Design the sequence.
């Protein structure tokens, strides 16, 4: 008798990411993938494949000079797969070949996007693909206005690459070795990148909610906002608050820093501060060398990176809704309120439990990675912490430290990027799994002191 090994949706998604990383690393290790025709060391190919699929952006070798056109195309494909999600990408292939999406694949899509229903999955995937390609296409056209005059025909490929990388919050570019620092004062590049990062990180569910409200409602624009779903209100308000607060803090802390924005005009300082605040939402592009930031700005960056974007989007981190729920829960406890509420709505207790679990697991991953990386590199603690938070939240910002990693350091970051990408997803899926039976006999309850 044949034995079938049945994987849970959690295991399937995690294995799918591993499979994509492995295939990508094999392809990038081929001589055809490198610019000089020589095979790149497999550890660097594995690192690049992992950072692409996990849409992180940390790189051990310069993307612009190390990889050939073929290698860059592989990296871009891996970024797109990682941004959309392996499950969504496979579903898109099935739809393209008019294959029926069975109940198992529908459950995978449901779990990957943390949806509450199995109905309308095909339509949902189609909308995700159409919306993604439209936004990335518009972003590429806007980039072309800046890159074609500078790079000629090559500017078309650079624009496409940058648009997909920015929307997927990957932070990998093929322009130069210092990210977008050469375009710190270019309004077109700054604005286009920020918009793509925010749209990719806000989440597809918020997209459809906002578009539906704007399309079907005849009320005044401000009144329409009240009709948004509870999730969208939390995601949008938290995103706006974090971007504004981050921009203000960066503006203050870097205002007189001669290594960053001291010589800029006031509008240029505002633009640079805004970009730094947006890119820490797990994008990874940089218009300011991160090692030149003040310690205060670096600490703010660490917090913003750890929080990240919103659920069901292309960003990483613990997510905006998670931190909002956690803070609301803390406020309720401090004010002796029994229920946790936001926007005059009560947050379910299981959502609060999930928020606590997500933050706890992410912190454990980050802390463990920091300890191991410090042991293997013995580098400056701030550089190490910046690297591990960036990897855990799949950000991609670095204090010029990634390229100096030894083989053990690279392995630590590879594992951290993978856990950071699939960890929160796997956790949500595991917590959404309903138990068939509960123990009739419960353990006795006893009071403890907390805090």
Sequence:
């Amino acid at each position: 008798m044949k034995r079938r090994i049945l994987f849970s949706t959690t295991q399937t998604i995690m294995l799918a990411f591993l499979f994509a990383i492995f295939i990508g690393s094999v392809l990038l290790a081929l001589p055809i993938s490198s610019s000089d025709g020589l095979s790149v060391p497999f550890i660097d190919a594995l690192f690049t494949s992992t950072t692409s699929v996990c849409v992180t952006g940390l790189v051990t070798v310069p993307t612009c000079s190390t990889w050939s056109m073929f290698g860059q195309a592989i990296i871009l494909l891996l970024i797109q797969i990682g941004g959309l999600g392996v499950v969504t990408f496979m579903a898109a292939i099935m739809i393209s070949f008019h294959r029926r999406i069975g109940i198992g694949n529908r459950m995978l899509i449901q779990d990957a996007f943390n949806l509450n229903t199995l109905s309308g999955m095909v339509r949902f995937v189609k909308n995700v693909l159409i919306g993604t390609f439209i936004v990335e296409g518009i972003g590429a056209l806007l980039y072309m206005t800046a890159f074609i005059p500078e790079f000629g025909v090559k500017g078309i490929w650079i624009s496409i690459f940058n648009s997909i990388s920015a929307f997927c919050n990957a932070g990998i570019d093929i322009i130069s070795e210092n990210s977008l620092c050469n375009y710190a004062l270019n309004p077109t590049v700054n604005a286009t990148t920020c918009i793509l990062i925010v749209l990719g990180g806000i989440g597809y569910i918020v997209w459809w909610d906002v578009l539906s409200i704007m399309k079907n409602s005849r009320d005044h624009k401000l009144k329409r906002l009240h009709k948004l779903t509870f999730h969208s209100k939390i995601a949008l308000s938290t995103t706006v608050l974090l971007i504004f607060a981050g921009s203000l803090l960066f503006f203050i802390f870097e205002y007189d820093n001669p290594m960053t924005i001291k010589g800029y005009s006031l509008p240029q300082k505002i633009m640079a501060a805004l970009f730094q605040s947006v890119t820490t939402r797990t994008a990874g592009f940089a218009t300011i060398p991160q090692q030149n930031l003040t310690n205060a700005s670096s600490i703010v960056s660490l917090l913003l990176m750890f929080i990240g974007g919103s659920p069901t989007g292309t960003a990483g981190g613990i997510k905006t809704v998670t931190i909002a729920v956690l803070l609301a829960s803390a406020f309720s406890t401090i004010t002796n309120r029994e229920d946790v509420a936001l926007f005059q709505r009560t947050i379910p207790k299981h959502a609060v439990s999930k928020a606590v679990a997500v933050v706890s697991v992410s912190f454990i991953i980050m802390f463990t990675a920091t300890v191991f990386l410090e042991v293997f590199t013995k580098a400056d603690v701030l550089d190490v912490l910046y690297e591990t938070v960036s990897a855990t939240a799949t950000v991609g910002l670095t204090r010029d430290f990634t390229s100096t990693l030894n083989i053990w350091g690279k392995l630590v970051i590879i594992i951290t990027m993978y856990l950071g990408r699939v960890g929160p997803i796997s956790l949500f899926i595991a917590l959404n799994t309903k138990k068939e039976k509960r123990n009739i006999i419960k353990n006795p309850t006893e009071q403890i002191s907390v805090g």
Strands lie at 341-342, 345-346. Residues 9-431 form one domain. The chain is about 65% helix and 0% strand. The chain has one domain: 9-431.
